[in-house]
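Request from the bench team (R.T.):
"We need a structural guess for the complex before ordering more NAP. Sequence and SMILES attached. Just send the tokens back."

Command: build protein-NAP structure.
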Amino acid sequence: MSRTVVVSGGGTGIGLAVAARFAKDDNVILVGRREDVLASAAAELGANASYVAADLATVEGAERLASFTADRHGSVDVIAACAGGNTLRSGDGLAAVSQAWTENLRLNVMTAVHLVEALKPQLNDDGRVLLYSSVAAYRGSGNGSYAASKAALHPYAIDLATELGPKRITANVIAPGYIEDTEFFGDRMTETRRSTLIGQTLNGRAGTPADIAELSHWLAAPAAGHVTAQIIQSNGGALAGR
Ligand SMILES: NC(=O)c1ccc[n+]([C@@H]2O[C@H](COP(=O)([O-])OP(=O)(O)OC[C@H]3O[C@@H](n4cnc5c(N)ncnc54)[C@H](OP(=O)(O)O)[C@@H]3O)[C@@H](O)[C@H]2O)c1
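Reply to R.T.: structure attached below.
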């Protein structure tokens, strides 16, 4: 039986790959802020895909999404909270530091919290909650705020797993290392930095959105029903380093 899967950030990068993996068998709902990006992603995925344009950093956006899933599907089986990103500091003063921290907490923590909490009442038994952190949560991100915002998701998943465990709903975090072919780095990736990041892996390659999509799909399978409250890293061993 096909499931209902909500993927935030589903229009690009990791979220799009996750949505594409589930869309082979399940109904997927893509969520993001840019309607044109979502429309073309949904068209690419075919009849199993629909979308809602919503800013999940806001309560209103999450509530609109929840109304859509309730009206159209009645319930939800899998929540994949891929939306996120790294807002860099725009200057040196305290105001700039404060703004970057606030933005990163909104972008990485509140988008996930609003999504999960808005859909929680619709989650079916045996459902799945997937949060997306980063290797940065373990080793920092240079600006503090991105890494800290990702680390905040780890105890949130543990509390969700505790709360939802009696319904056999699992909650886990995937923490990717460097993943290519996303919008995450914008125009900030240089060849030198790319080589450094790949050089930190033990298998000598960048991660791909498909790596994360396959892991997400497995965590949502019945076979993974006893895996919950875990933070699972997919980074080619980069944290261990050489
Ligand atoms: N790429 C990497 O190397 C890497 C490594 C570790 C972790 N990650 C994490 O993986 C996740 C996916 O990122 P990605 O690499 O696939 O980058 P991406 O292509 O930039 O994807 C981020 C997605 O989040 C959506 N989004 C951002 N803010 C939103 C909001 N307020 N409401 C709704 N949707 C929002 C964006 O769409 P709109 O702009 O249209 O809203 C976009 O589709 C992120 O959480 C990121 O932190 C990435």
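Two things stood out. Residues 8-9, 11-15, 31-34, 37, 55-57, 82-85, 107, 111, 132, 134, 176, 178-179, 182-184 surround NAP (CB under 6 Å). The beta strands are 4-8, 27-32, 49-53, 76-81, 123-132, 170-176, 231-234.
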